[in-house]
Amino acid sequence: MEVLYRDFAMSFEGKDKVLGEFLIKFTADRPGILAALSNVFADHGINILNISVNRTQLLLHFVVDLTNTDTSLNDLEKELKRFSFVEWVKYRIVEKEAFMVPSMIMPTFRDKQVLVIELERTKDLLTNPEFRRIIRELGTYDASLLRNSNLSELIKMGQFRGLGKVVLTERDGTITIRSCSELNDKHVMEELMIEYYTGFLSQILKSNVEAVGRSYEGDCVSISFKVLK
């Protein structure tokens, strides 16, 4: 499947290692910043384990393995600050702990703080009508923030809510959304898709919709929706 699974990387194994996280504020967003900073770490034998960037905040976050570095932290900080585009550098080092949990980064969606829950843990919640209503309203909310565009592109918003890799087809007045993922329970995905996309499509199309069919193929589940007149 041609899709990258992007791990939130909530912890890093650190036994017998020196791990660190660096938060770097840059002054303007321009080409070459990430490459230049990454090269500084590489030049000193520092392995980059994870990189995140927020272009709104102008912040870069690196999680690195400094076990085999050939420089001091003080000199490394000075070298990073030599770039004209670097405003400040903050870092935190953890030595030989079983795990390091990066604390200079927080998961967000559209710059809003989120609560991260594995989909498999929602299985029992799907029997609760209130939980299903929340998922439907989430679809409505996401759709309300989008401008008019190709529906095939808009429905991909669900992919970033954790609903697998999604593709849309339309035929004879029926909208079918196909979700594929090697990681998830298809039956959990099916129920979440029904609620989320009922809210999403109703908002986008300004008309009520209902799920009228479902099917499975390999790691994929397809849900068909009919627009109600």
UniProtKB/TrEMBL annotation:
Xref: InterPro entries: ACT-like_dom_sf, ACT_dom
Classification via Pfam families: ACT (PF01842)
Domain of life assignment: Archaea
Domain ACT: 22-94
Coiled coil: none
Protein name (database record): ACT domain-containing protein
